[in-house]
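hey all, quick one before standup. I had two proteins in the batch that finished overnight and I want to keep them in one place so we stop losing track of which output belongs to which input. First protein below, input sequence then structure tokens straight from the run.
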Amino acid sequence: MPKSATATPRPSTGRRVLVTGGAGFIGSHLVDRLLAQGHEVVVYDDFSTGFRRFLADAGHAGCRIVKGNLLDCERLRRALDGCDLVAHLAANADVRGGLDRPTLDLEQNTRATSVLLEAMRAAGVDRLLFSSTGAIYGEPSVFPTPEDAPLPLQTSLYGASKLAAEGLISAYCHGFGLRAWIFRFVSILGPRYSHGHVFDFVRKLRADPSTIDVLGDGRQRKSYLHVDDCIAGMLRALGDEPDPVAVYNLGHDASCVVDESLDWICHRLGVEPERRYAGGARGWVGDSPRVELDCTRMRALGWAPTRSIRASVESTVDYLVAEPWLLDARR
């Protein structure tokens, strides 16, 4: 296969990895880690939610950036030339806004995954890392929730679209000989974090430190994981060859309620706002009031989180304070 004019010869032990959504929050951290390990990386991103400045540390010969839409199968196939692994992190991650644009999750999560699988098949690339979500469990009856828990009725379009994408991946693996690692994440925190409750609270308190509106009753219980621990888990699992699909929960054994995380955020910012609660057990339609995943399967590989949830929240706040451009860019 012809190499990019900007690419250096690939180390004999390295890979060439296509990272979809490589300019996004989690994707850009994965790009940095892969490059640090001596792999070549092709970033595929349409920059609708990602940022080129997240790739500032990746601007050297081992990384090529392709601006493209995931629904463009031919462009994807060309970007896959010479690759032997795909990390598929591109998605619409705005869970709360799903009902406002009901086809967005279908297009950007399910259909985009289908197009990517066809592009991989055409290019002869047979290894895939996929970022799924704990939202596929809906509102489970088992806590912490294991990978083989019975799937309840789906409560969000986001979770449903990711579950459908998992089904497509599994079918391609069984039908066409692909191998896939599927990771069901809790909410991820850390530098470059660009959406979610910590982001929303920091932006609101930056505009008005005297009051804060809280969706639901503040008692929703969730687990969170630092992005560095997330990437470490994904790459650790990569050494465990699936046959043909391996599914891992990736999260923290601990959890916290929304009010606790708001306490940590306010303490870090040095503010004491009046809290105004919308009420109800859920923040929005489709929001699961409790997310706690059983990560025994992931831990069996020798992986464990290195940061507490509080430390992850605080590092996220510190980053957003130091990089206020991101708060403004997401308005």
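OK second protein, same deal, sequence then tokens:
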Amino acid sequence: MFKKKRVNADAAVGLDLDPSHIAAAEVHVNGSITVTRGAVADLRPGILRDGEVVDPVALGDELRAFFAEHELPRRVRLGVANQRIVVRTLDLPPIDDPKALAAAVKLEAPDHIPMPIEEAVVDFQSLGLVGTAKGPRTRVVVAAARRETIDRLVDAARHAGLELAGIDLSAFAMIRALRPTEGDGDGAVLYVNASGLTNIAVANASGCLFTRAAAGGLDATSAALSERRALTREHARAWMSHVGLITPLEDVEGDAELIAATRAALEEGVHQLADTVRNSLNFYRTQESAEKVERAVLTGPAIAIPGYAERLGEQLKLPLEPVLAATTAEDVDLHRLTVAAGLAVSSVG
């Protein structure tokens, strides 16, 4: 599902399916990932819920129209992220042989996956040899998704006439798109993609150490604002970017009551996001293999809201940097293309 593979010249289109939008990216890889072409479209509410496909036929119809409109190649690599995906880090005896490592993971994984193994799609990624209190160990990250979740994604892609090059964890793609090839430092980094779904990951130079997806995200804020003020979701998002979290309310142009309501929704939203991220980070820190997290990276549509990244960093009490994927393309919505860019390849270099 998400094992590292060598990057081929015919890399697939990265296809990110967020509850709020569809995003597709073509990239160029030269040590790092650069978006050369991208496309984004809003997704009708109810087709995906909390990252899971509710209606494969409706999603397939949306994807078929999306790819036809933007004349995109139909070979794709899909991302998956939802609250039912399980990711665990296992420390195994030192194993060099890939087949022996796969056999060891197959034997050990069922004891750590809280779902019937026959109902799961399981894959793993080796982080190599690490030093532990018990001596050298081969550390692997094991991910398991319910088979019905993957089947619904595959059904939607087939209905749209797409060729699947692979399915990967969206968190892995986020890290690939944003992590520099050099200068990562010694500490682990917290990655947060705030969109229709909140995707959280911790990674070091070797790879992903922990990931969790949470419902809500930025869409929860826009939904709350649209309901309170009888706005469309599109208008609510526009007001959120217009008002932001920096400019004094009296200096923001527009209806004073709507401006105040927008600021209140944003304050509440960033507080809820900080709680979600903090709880996930605290859970990660309880793990025996946890590394110290010294800084954070924020990506996704939240970056477009003035002051959002700064406020989130303050509440997390971590240095936080807003980052987007690099691009040579013009007129692309990079705020929603990070995960798609990472999905376009299965590894960098």
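Flagging for whoever picks this up: The radius of gyration is 20 Å. Confidence is low (pLDDT under 50) at residues 1-9.
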